[in-house]
Backbone:
């Protein structure tokens, strides 16, 4: 092989590695350091009038007196536009009288950059009349391609988990916290989750489920508390304060996490049993002989 050919093969192998790792979208020609702090504001123009004596060098090092106001750190254009996106989402979501209107509003929502790299909006799956609503994180590569949530590897595990407690896609309604695939299957950022939250809140109001299953930390943080940790909060029932009244909600591990950490399936099974028990108390989605298939357990 010539040097050029072997370089070509090496480049191709490197590219295949990145695609397998989920980095299959080009966003910009140049990399951007998004962790870099925003630039300092330009120095204020010098005041007119007699020149002031310069403070001695030691004074410059003295701490500022407590009462002196500290200038707020200027917000980056991204932060301002994310805040604007959340306001727009709020206005749009409030006007949606049904699920079709909500989907249409989302199709028109331009507030998030991730929609540019995603193939399509991944709105929901399952039965909108169901009493159970399941909320995941964000679509991955398979979901982005097919336009339905939880159709990839983690979706297959989810189907088996639901089957084990007598549920299937007809007895639940499934959506995500963020409805476009973040590039490279990365976790949605808090700003993206915040911008999507008004739509999620309206989605829950319109479906009006009797129980919520929150799979993964994103749904938990979005609906309750940004600092909540799924590892601590899983299995602990909470009441989601919907406008129509409290809805019991159970956070549990995300199936993608369980695929990576199979030893946690025991805890997930406990949570599923707890969910089933609560459904039985609520008289929701009773288990029938047909609803448990031989391969569901
Ligand atoms: N993970 C999610 O949280 N949602 C999906 O739809 C797929 C994978």
Residues:
């Amino acid at each position: 092989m010539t040097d050029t050919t072997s370089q070509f093969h090496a480049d191709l192998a490197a590219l295949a590695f990145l695609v397998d790792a989920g980095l299959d979208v080009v966003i910009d020609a140049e990399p951007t350091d998004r962790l870099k702090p925003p630039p300092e504001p330009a120095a204020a123009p010098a005041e007119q009038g007699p020149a002031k004596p310069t403070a001695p060098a030691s004074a410059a090092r003295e701490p500022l007196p407590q009462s002196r106001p500290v200038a707020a750190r200027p917000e980056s254009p991204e932060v301002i536009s994310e805040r604007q996106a959340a306001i727009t989402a709020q206005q749009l979501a409030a006007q949606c009288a049904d699920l079709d209107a909500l989907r249409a509003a989302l199709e028109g929502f331009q507030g998030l950059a991730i929609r540019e790299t995603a193939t399509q909006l991944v709105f929901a799956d399952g039965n909108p009349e169901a009493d159970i609503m399941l909320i995941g994180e964000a679509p991955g590569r398979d979901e982005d391609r097919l336009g339905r949530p939880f159709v990839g590897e983690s979706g297959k595990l989810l189907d088996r988990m639901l089957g084990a407690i007598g549920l299937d896609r007809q007895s639940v309604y499934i959506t995500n916290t963020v409805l476009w695939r973040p590039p490279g299957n990365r976790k949605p950022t808090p700003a993206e989750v915040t911008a999507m939250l008004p739509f999620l809140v309206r989605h829950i109001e319109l479906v009006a489920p009797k129980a919520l299953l929150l799979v993964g930390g994103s749904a938990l943080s979005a609906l309750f508390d940004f600092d909540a940790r799924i590892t601590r909060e899983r299995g602990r029932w909470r009441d989601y304060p919907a406008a129509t009244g409290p809805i019991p909600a159970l956070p549990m591990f995300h199936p993608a996490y369980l695929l990576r950490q199979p030893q946690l399936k025991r805890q997930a099974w406990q949570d599923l049993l707890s969910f089933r028990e609560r459904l039985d108390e609520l008289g929701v989605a009773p288990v029938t002989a047909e609803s448990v298939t031989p391969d569901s357990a």
